[in-house]
């Protein structure tokens, strides 16, 4: 029952890219940034056009039959033995940690296990599989980081974002109080218990603003639309970005940094 | 005492109570401050320890105990009986109350002094005894305060954590005539003085149990105030009451669990008192109770035990770390839940006690952030159990039919239909691409409001093109 130890694969020639539905519809720039970073590392990125969503919203709402149907539609997309990279700790966590249980005692058990064990959160993959070295081309700046709870606790990548930002010479990472506390997103939780979620995000935004920076980055688009959406609605001086967009913008020669 | 304080009828009213708590700055501040302190204390208490290995050990001890639970309970009963402790079995809280009343009646006991026991809260023992003409007085300082205020505990370790010193001072002034003071020492001393007299005159002492050791027939009790020792040694009769899951095989198992319990709960390396009760006063001994009883309470636990996954709920050693680290508990406080056990452990335990129909809001009141599971000293996968109970409350899995009492109560045909539609769209990539392509193309029509989401935030803005489309273009 010990948590399995992460065994990173050797740097592969190709990866599958699972974009997630939030990135697909709301933050495709973050997805493209992830693809660019991978390609710059010499990795060919395969984006299966048949992908939709990992199934998590139905899963955490208790509708497991519906989640299983959606998840099953993703299992066919990754036939070769390449890693599957995901620009989200939450969707990555769903696929890596919950697919095996979701398909236990079904005919898809083996396929689900094969997908689950190949899933990597993208920043973790860049740092620990690609051993990426970032050259900062941007102006000096301060940034705060919110690691999503699933990235932190399910995927175990709490140290990855700070390590990547630490490679950027002109970026100072500032830490907010209670950095490890949830921002209050929680998927359908945000609408089922709006007051509790609202209280959580308001305190998260205050903590971020108190660091003295106006910019934060995060591993997950759920947290991003929650925190940045609260800041925007309540006119707080805070704007957010997916960490992949931030990393790409600062190191992209064509763009000349930001 | 009012009925409302004692009957957990308002578990269904979670939403309004949570809203009220969130709007109450005093509650918010009291809990935030207390939880911040407890988290910091726990962290420093485990410094220098290989915490993951210790948690693994704790989990395995509890799992091994649960795997042999029926045998261990028989062994425990035999050993306790050999030691002169009388063992009683109660299928639910009512039966446990009746057993305790009968013991009191047989001794013509009119006054009971109580050490801290969450199982007795589960049973609403004080309320029951007062109806039988028996006075039960709480001797744990927090419980004493809660009893003075005619409230229920808001935390399983620190029952009065929802009150600050000023509020406690006012309460004690009103009810017991102490001076108004912010001096914690003075307030504690006043309470002690009042309690000391009650200890001397009590006919029966009732306590909880932290670990019941099967091999030796020992009841272990962890406490800080000495009231537990007084409760179990001063009155002529001691009744211990606990859940059937609290048994462990041997004394060896206690040391690891105790190390985890005190550090996880209050950040202490060891509590001020650790009592090991092994029987009534022997003929040659000068003190101790003449009679010792143990009441083992099921109250739904045996049903939980029958499910391989839900079984993990019973690993709990009641340290309270899950609530100390819970961002929801920190915001709404313990009373919002309307349950004996609040916070994450309450959300996975109470549905079995009150039914998933009554407790339907409990499993959803979590962002599934995982902080509870991360700190649990016996590694209960609390988020997974919350998801399991969410599935049970909507009958959401044909492969694993729901079995918890009151399952399916939250299922609405509208919500089920929405998820079916959602599932159909996301199970068919062509439909999904068509739908998302259409949505992004007509994004200027996106409504600015999106239900409860936009009460607090702006709506996320649809991109001009989906990632699918951009990746397709990129290839060309």
Features:
heterodimer; A: 258 residues; alpha/beta; Rossmann fold; 2 domains; four-stranded parallel sheet; 13 helices; 47% helix; 12% strand; B: 476 residues; six-stranded parallel sheet; four-stranded mixed sheet; 22 helices; 10% strand; globular; disordered N terminus
Give a verbal description of the structure.
- The complex is a heterodimer of chains A (258) and B (476).
- Chain A has two domains: 14-128, no CATH class; 141-251, Rossmann fold (3-Layer(aba) Sandwich), CATH 3.40.50.11810.
- Chain A is 47% helix and 12% strand.
- Chain A has 13 helices and eight strands.
- In chain A, helix 2 packs across helix 13, helix 5 runs antiparallel to helix 6 and helix 11 crosses helix 12 (221-233).
- Chain A is globular, with a radius of gyration of 18 Å.
- Chain B is of the alpha/beta class.
- Among the domains of chain B are: 48-302, Rossmann fold (3-Layer(aba) Sandwich), CATH 3.40.50.10420; 413-475, no CATH class.
- Helices cover 49% and strands 10% of the residues of chain B.
- In chain B, the strands form two sheets. Chain B has a six-stranded parallel beta sheet with strand order 1-10-7-4-2-3, sandwiched between helices.
- In chain B, strand 5 (211-213) and strand 6 form a beta hairpin.
- The model of chain B is unreliable at 1-6 (pLDDT under 50).
- Chains A and B meet through helix 1, helix 2, helix 3, helix 4 and helix 8 of A and helix 1, helix 3, helix 15, helix 17 and helix 18 of B.
Concise structural overview:
With 258 residues, chain A is of the alpha/beta class. Helix content of chain A is 47%, strand content 12%. Chain A has 13 helices and 8 strands.
């Amino acid at each position: 029952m010990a948590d399995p130890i992460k065994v990173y694969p050797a740097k592969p020639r190709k990866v599958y890219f699972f974009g997630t539905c939030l990135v697909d519809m709301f933050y495709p720039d973050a997805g493209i940034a992830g693809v660019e970073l991978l390609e710059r590392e010499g990795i060919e990125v395969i984006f299966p056009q048949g992908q939709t969503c990992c199934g998590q919203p139905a899963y955490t709402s208790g509708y497991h039959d519906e989640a299983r149907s959606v998840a099953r539609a993703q299992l066919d997309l990754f036939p070769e033995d390449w890693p599957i990279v995901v620009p989200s700790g939450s969707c990555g966590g769903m696929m890596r940690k919950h697919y095996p249980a979701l398909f236990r005692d079904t005919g898809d058990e083996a396929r689900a296990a094969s997908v689950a064990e190949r899933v990597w959160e993208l920043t973790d993959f860049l740092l620990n599989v690609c051993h990426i070295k970032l050259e900062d081309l941007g102006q000096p700046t301060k940034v705060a980081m919110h690691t999503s709870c699933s990235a932190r606790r399910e995927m175990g990548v709490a140290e990855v974002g700070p390590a990547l930002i630490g490679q950027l010479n002109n970026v100072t990472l500032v830490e907010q109080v209670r950095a490890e506390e949830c921002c209050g997103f929680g998927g359908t939780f945000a609408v089922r218990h709006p007051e509790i979620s609202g209280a959580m995000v308001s305190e998260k935004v205050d903590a971020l603003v108190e660091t003295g920076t106006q910019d934060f980055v995060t591993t997950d688009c759920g947290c991003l639309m929650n925190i940045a959406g609260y800041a925007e609605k309540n006119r707080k001086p805070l704007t957010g970005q997916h960490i992949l967009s931030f990393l790409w913008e600062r190191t992209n020669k064509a763009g000349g940094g930001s | 005492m009012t009925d409302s304080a004692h009957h957990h009828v308002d578990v269904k009213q979670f939403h309004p109570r949570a809203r009220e708590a969130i709007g109450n700055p005093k509650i918010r501040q009291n809990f935030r401050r207390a939880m911040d302190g407890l988290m910091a204390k726990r962290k420093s208490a485990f410094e220098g320890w290989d915490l993951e290995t210790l948690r693994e050990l704790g989990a395995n001890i509890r799992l091994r105990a649960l795997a042999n639970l029926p045998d261990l309970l028989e062994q425990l009963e035999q050993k306790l009986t050999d030691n002169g402790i009388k063992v009683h079995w109660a299928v639910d809280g009512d039966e446990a109350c009746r057993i305790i009343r009968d013991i009191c009646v047989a001794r013509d006991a009119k006054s009971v002094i109580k050490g801290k026991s969450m199982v007795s809260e589960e049973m609403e023992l004080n309320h029951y005894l007062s109806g039988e003409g028996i006075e039960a007085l709480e001797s744990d300082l927090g419980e004493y305060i809660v009893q003075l205020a005619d409230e229920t505990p808001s935390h399983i370790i620190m029952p009065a954590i929802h009150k600050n010193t000023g509020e406690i001072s006012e309460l004690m002034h009103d009810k017991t005539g102490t001076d108004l003071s912010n001096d914690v020492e003075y307030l504690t001393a006043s309470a002690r003085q009042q309690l000391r007299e009650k200890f001397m005159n009590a006919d029966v002492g009732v306590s909880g149990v932290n670990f019941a050791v099967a091999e030796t027939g020992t009841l272990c009790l962890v406490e800080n105030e000495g009231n537990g020792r007084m409760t179990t040694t001063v009155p002529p009769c001691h009744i211990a009451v606990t859940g059937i899951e609290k048994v462990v095989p041997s004394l060896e198992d206690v040391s690891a669990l105790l190390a985890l319990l005190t550090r996880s709960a209050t950040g202490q390396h060891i509590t001020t008192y650790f009592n090991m009760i092994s029987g009534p006063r022997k003929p040659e001994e000068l003190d101790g109770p003449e009679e010792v009883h143990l009441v083992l309470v099921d109250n739904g636990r045996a049903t939980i035990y029958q499910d391989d996954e839900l079984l993990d709920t019973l690993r709990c050693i009641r340290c309270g770390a899950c609530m100390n680290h819970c961002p929801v508990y920190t915001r709404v406080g313990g009373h919002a839940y309307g349950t004996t056990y609040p916070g994450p452990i309450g959300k996975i335990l109470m549905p079995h006690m009150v039914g998933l129909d009554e407790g339907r809001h409990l499993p959803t009141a979590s962002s599934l952030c995982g902080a509870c599971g991360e700190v649990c000293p016996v590694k209960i996968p609390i988020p997974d159990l919350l998801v399991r109970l969410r599935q049970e409350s909507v009958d959401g899995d044909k492969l694993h039919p729901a079995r918890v009492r009151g399952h399916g109560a939250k299922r609405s045909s509208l919500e089920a239909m929405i998820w079916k539609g959602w599932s159909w769209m996301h199970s068919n990539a062509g439909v999904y691409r068509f739908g998302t392509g259409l949505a992004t193309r007509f994004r200027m029509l996106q409504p600015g409001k999106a239900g409860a989401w936009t009460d607090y935030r702006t709506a996320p803005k649809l991109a001009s093109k989906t990632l699918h489309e951009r990746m397709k273009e990129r290839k060309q």
